[in-house]
Amino acid sequence: YMRYFGDASLGGRDAYFHFESGGVHFFALNSEQPLEPDSVQGKWLAAGLTDASKTTGYRTSLVFMHRPWVTCGDVSENIDLRTRWASTFTQAKVTVVFQAHMHAYERFDLDGLTWVTTGGGGGLLPNVDENLSRASCASRKSKGSFFHAMDVVIDGNKVHADTIDDKGAVRDAFDVTIERPGAAAEVQ
């Protein structure tokens, strides 16, 4: 935890932070602290997403955190936070939300966003269908209980991601078109 969040010194915060590269803004959230829109971190996130989306050369924002807001495999899912943040994420042109905690892989198209659970670097491999009765599971596009890494490339107006297992096989690949003003995001 401290390796990734302790004293990050990015944006003056040590538990959550933001950085930008080539017009792409990255927001690292601390899911161990309150994330409601009226919390300190929530206010920081809302202001940061709004400010980022107004900067010259802005392309998109990516959000990443530890605990998942949508999952069919993990016991913890946070529907309340997901639905409370969905419109803010859409307005700020967030294209992908990366989450972890569960040591497996899931990809959802939900709320006009792509949600990816990518926790396949180690640990016990769980049953990704443990909570399949959740309504959000109907929006799951890919899944797997396997060790993996992700290769994410942002090129022009497209986010491309390959999910590669520990044998080198691509287990999932997806493209998300970065929304241009007046156009909706498209997932392929």
Structural overview:
The termini are far apart. This protein has helices at 2-5, 40-53, 79-91, and strands at 17-21, 24-28, 60-64, 94-99, 105-110, 113-118, 140-144, 148-155, 158-165, 170-177, 186-187. The radius of gyration is 16 Å and the shape is globular. The strands form 2 sheets. Strands 1-2-3-4-6-5-7 form a 7-stranded mixed sheet, covered by helices on one side. It has a 4-stranded antiparallel sheet with strand order 8-9-10-11, with no helix packed on it. It is of the alpha/beta class. It contains 3 helices and 11 strands; from the N terminus they run αββαβαββββββββ. A hairpin with a 2-residue loop joins strand 8 and strand 9 (158-165).
Low-confidence stretches: 181-185
Helix content: 10-25%
Distance between the termini: 34 Å
Structural class: alpha/beta
Main sheet overview: 7 strands, mixed
H/E topology pattern: HEEHEHEEEEEEEE
Determine the mean pLDDT: 89
- What is the topology, as strand order, of the major beta sheet? 1-2-3-4-6-5-7
Number of helix segments? 3
Computed over alpha carbons, the radius of gyration is 16 Å
The best one-word shape is: globular
Strand content: 25-35%
Question: Features of this protein?
Answer:
alpha/beta, about 15% helix, 7-stranded mixed sheet, about 190 residues, single chain
